[in-house]
Amino acid sequence: MSMTTNPVEKRLIEALKTVDAHGDVAPPHVHDPMTMLLRENAIQANLMRWDDEWGRYVLTGTGRRRITDRRAPGAVVAFRRRAAPGPDAPGRRPGEAKSE
Q: Is the pTM of this model over 0.90?
């Protein structure tokens, strides 16, 4: 089953893969406004950071998870339903606090 993501998300994922491989979203001589915007958005979203020791951008744990995650961000994930309470279980309405 293939998930479709929006074009902006695809560009961000490709930019993060480039950071992982080369240390930046594009070569230093590229001053395209979209490239600069991608770089800034990735930094603000804590997906990549500047590493003084390496002298290049590196992915954070969040950025690494973003490029390896198989589902799109904001995708709906199905959860199992709880079993219905038995006849012996005390009745509780949703939103009602448990009494100790």
A: no
